Amino acid sequence: MASVALHSLASLETLPPDDPASLVIGRDTAVKRVAHHAERAAQVGCTVLLTGETGTGKEVWARLLHRVGARREQPFIPVNCAALTPTLAESQLFGHERGAFTGAAGASLGVFRAGDKGIVFLDEVGDMPLELQPKLLRVLQEGEVTPVGSSHPVKVDVQIIAATNRRLEQEVAEGRFREDLYYRLNLVELRMPPLRDRTADIPLFIEYFSQKYAKRYGQPVWRPDEDALRAFCEYQWPGNIRQLSFVLEQSYVLQCEPSLPGKGAARAESRDLPYTDLGRLRQVAVEQALRTAGGHKGRAAKLLGIHPNTMTRLLSQIGADSAASDEVA
């Protein structure tokens, strides 16, 4: 993928509507300040910590840093630290030797050796088990890993970009995150502003997502009238950009006007619905929310503007409960 200078992305108006950089650059001053620091971090290839609420686009920023940095031709490996299997996490990250444990029929490189010369993106790093944190610290300090079942460290050259929606200072104070690891990860912090503080960018996001989903679902681009646009700009968006994306995609899936959670339709006029079965409509909405929320019931409930208990009941009714997680983070 071609390199793109971050400073040249000062406005979404200069970008093609399908450019992923459209999701991170806007008119808001705070975002431009983030872009300035991100450009420098990409140039030097240092460790970066992306912080901010869920749905503010941290992984999009991480991928953009990879795209514009010196390692853009090398691997970008995302790791969801919250989903690491407790019994196999060390092997997943650092690799293992053949026979290191029951079932280890062959050797495994692990994430860091597989990502050598590239970037490892540690999403939800605040959820990394405490016992693994010293090993991650060693990667940062010494540039080496020791595979499970081996006594010989192996050198690796990776840039680490980490992200979290937790307040790591508080996690450190409460003993759930190592202080020395926090300072190593926090060499450059890029704090993602919530969407409610970026109201000037909401019309740009509406345009971006509307064009994206209109193309995907073969429908006309939604152009909000003045009242609808005002309602979207005044809404607080607890799920941030991810929630806005969901609201707009849901409207294309259901072929109806976008509506805000708990607010009713943004416009009275509706498109013709392809389904007449209200139960089917409900199922589509719930399943789409779950996909957007990564299977987390609490997040999906927030996107739909309903109580988590209501989400649990809906999942039970449509038989999708087994595919969902109770995590609410």
Automatic annotation (TrEMBL):
Q: By its UniProt entry, which InterPro entries does this protein fall under?
A: AAA+_ATPase, AAA_lid_NorR, Homeodomain-like_sf, HTH_Fis, P-loop_NTPase, Sigma_54_int
Domain (Sigma-54 factor interaction) spans 24-253
Q: Which SMART domains match?
A: AAA
Instruction: Please name the GO terms of the biological process aspect recorded for this protein, alphabetically.
Output: regulation of DNA-templated transcription
Matching entries from Pfam families are given as: AAA_lid_14 (PF25601), HTH_8 (PF02954), Sigma54_activat (PF00158)
Plastid among keywords: no
Q: Mind listing the UniProt keywords for this protein, alphabetically? A: ATP-binding, Lyase, Nucleotide-binding, Transcription, Transcription regulation
The keyword Transferase belongs to this UniProt entry's keyword annotation: no
Q: Name one GO molecular function term.
A: lyase activity
This protein's name = Formate hydrogenlyase transcriptional activator
Q: Which organism is it from?
A: Lacipirellula limnantheis
Cite the source lineage.
Bacteria, Pseudomonadati, Planctomycetota, Planctomycetia, Pirellulales
